[in-house]
Structures are given as structure tokens and as C-alpha cells.
Amino acid sequence: MTHRRSGSWLTLCACLLAVTMQMIDVTAVTVALPTIAQDLGGQGAQQVWVPAAYLLAFACALLTMARTGEVFGRRNTFVVGTAMFASTSVLCAYAPTIEMLILGRVLQGLAGAAMSAQTVAIVTATYAGARRTTAFALYGAVAGLAGLAGPAVGAVLLELDILGTGWRAIFLINVPIAMIAIAIGRRYIAVGSQYVQSGTGGRFDPVGVLLWSTGALLIVYPIMTSSSPTTAVPAMGIGLGLLAVFAMWERRRRAAGAHVMVDTSVFAERGFSYGCAVSALVYGTFTGFVLTMSVTLQTGLGDSASMVGAITVPFALGAIAASLVAPMAFERWDSRSVAAGAAIMGVSLSMLGLATAQLGQPGFAWWLVVPLALIGVGLGSVIAPLQSTIVAGVRPEAIGSATGIMPTVQQIGSAVGTAVTGVVYFALLPAQPIASDYLASQQKVLFGLAVSMAAATAVSVALPRRDRKTGGEARAPAMAPHRSP
User: Which CATH class for the 1-199 domain?
Assistant: First the structure.
């Protein structure tokens, strides 16, 4: 029994190493963007592609990779995906041009999806009852902290310049972590049919894969490449149409008793559909905020990466503190705590926007710690209870689909947020920008992000509450989703 328990906790360790590596990689790279652009000769708009290419590939491949794990086994897919993540990280580290780096990020995103899509299912199959709850609480906490710590980790690696690797260390650090995760995973992750969803069959749905991947790509890609939002509308319309066809195709297969990639009926639950909308807005706002602040401070004002890391500290501390209090707030105020957190985040972004000029003053304006910390408080107040709110009304048999859709929505939100915010930010800059131009662009972006959070607040107010449900309590989720700030 002791050996079995130690093996199960080592299985969790492998999953935690994977999610830590993936989350830090997503956010740490934003700190290094100005340095990368200078080293590889990348133009301003190309900087947006470095994080966005990863997020786009990750989001488009996540559902397919989840099914790959069901067919070929979670352990095998996890180990292969982790090895590919390490290999593509080396490719990114030694990319000779910005174009090769972007290609490497696409491949790294595909590998990250193969790795990350297995972790929730592995933990679900490994634990039961109270131990599963504890495992997912630890999983969620580690994922959240890793995402928030990413900018600071990136700044430290840039400052240390380990063996002269500079920004490349942000990718190379994945290699030893991945090797440990692979060693543990091969030894302790169980092999068996318990990882395969019953009744789903062992075949892929190539039509569903094609419809989903193409639709998601056509929604996000035009935003990244179009010179104005209006030019992206036709391709986005086609993408939305393909996703509608995907939904009909999945319903048809489900009615015929065939395997489906996702149970699209979960969107009929108001809490799930509204919660996904809030999640996309919040994650998109977060990634857009980190991206533009990094460029403004380093490229615009000439600050060091350590300054970016210093600015993320009060933000991260506020998010951690709010995450610790969030369960109690959720127990008392239910989904209203989500709306309150979104409102706090929006107001704080507006406060920081009004004070943007202070960023150009010599040294660090310490009073800016207040709005920065409050932005983190708002983020932590939203993320922690939002997961439970989203899946509260989902049928138990549809929980698997729900927890596959949620991280996909989060990643698409992050990709769109990164792309839209980056395009707007660089479009507002003149051909030869000076420090004041960067500050003016940053201010407008912060106000725009505040509007995004106002929309998230409005949608959050419409989230269902447990006290409105029959019986007074919402159903608890059977598994927790992968989180990505």
C-alpha cells in the first residue's frame, strides 16, 4: 500500500513538472521579447508571433491530443509529448532567425498540447475521493503559481546570462525538467484501459479534427496578420462557420453512437457557456497586459528585464493572496465573487492607465505597487472560483468534454488576447517611436483591457448561482481543468 501511494504521488510529480514547465514557458518568454527581437532582428509586430504562435498551435491541437492519449495510452503520449517539448525547446533556443523561432514555437505548441492534454486524465485515473480533491488542489495551485512566476523567472534568467546563453536559457531550462518528468512518467504512470473513456471507441474522428483545427486557426490567424480588424472579418467568418459545422458533425456522430471529440451539448448549460466567455476574456487580458508592459519597459523606456520582473512581483503576490481567500469568498458569495474579481481587475487597469506617465520617471514609482497588486487580486479572485462555477451544472457524463473544452477556450483566449493587444499596441506607434510614444500606446491599451474586463464583469453577473439551483447546491466537478493564467 505504501509503495502504491508513493507511486501515485510520483505520478502527480511528473504531471506537476509538466504543467510547471509549460506555464513558465508561456509567460517567461514575454519578458525576453525585446531582447529576442534585437538579437534576431525581428520587427515590432513579429514579437507578437513568438508567444502567439505557441498559444495558437497549443489551442488548435489540444482536443486532438487528448484523443491521441485515449487511443495510444496516456503514459505513452505523455512521455512522447514531453520528449518532443524538450526537443523543440532546444530548436527554439538555437533558432538563427526570428522566422525559425516562430516555427519552433509552433512545433513546441503542438508538443505542449500532447503533453498537457494527458495530465488531467492521468491525475483523475490515479486518485479517487478526497485524495483526488487534494491532488487537483495542488495541481491547480502549482499551475497558477508557475504562470504568475513566469515573468520573474524569465527576468532572472536574462540577468544571470548562464554560460552566455542569454534569452536562450528560457527554452533550455525545459530540457532537464522534461528529462526528470519523462523518467518519473515511464516508471510510475500506470498503463491500462482506465485512461480510455468508456464507450468512445478506439478510432479518430479525422473530419472533426479537420473542422475544429481549421476553424480555430481561421479565427485567430487573421487577427495576427491583418493590418486592420475589418480585413480579418471574412476569414474569421469562415472560421466561425466551420466551428458551427463541427458542432453539427459532433451532434450527428453522438446521435449515431460513434465517438465524438467533444460533447457540444455542454454549451446548452448557461454557466458553462458564460463561464467560458469570462475565462477567454480574463486570460486574453492577462497575456495582453504582460506582453505590452514588457515591450514598453524594455524597448520603450530602456529598462532592464529585472524591472519587468520587479513589476510582476506585486501582481503575483496579489494573485496568490486572492487565490488563498477565494474559496472562502466563493463559499459565501458564490459566482458573485467572480464578478467582483473581474470588476477589481478592470478598475485597477484603468488606475494604472491613468498613471502610465509615471512609468517614464527615473526609478520605480513605488505607489504603482497598489494598482499592480490589485490587478493580481482581481485575477486571483476570478480564476480560483471560476473553474468550479463553469462545471457546476454540467452533467456527470459530460464532465470529460467540459474539462477538455475549458483549457482550449483559455488558450484561444490567450492567443487572441496576445494577438489583438499586440497588433493594436504596435499600430499605435509611429515609424520612429520615442519613449513618450510607447507610454501613450501603453495607456490606450490599458484602457482597452479595462473595457475587456468590464465586459467580463457584465457576463459574470449572469453566471448562475448555487442558491438558484434545485436543491440549493451545484454539482461538484468530477475533475479539475488545466489552468493557465
Answer: mainly alpha
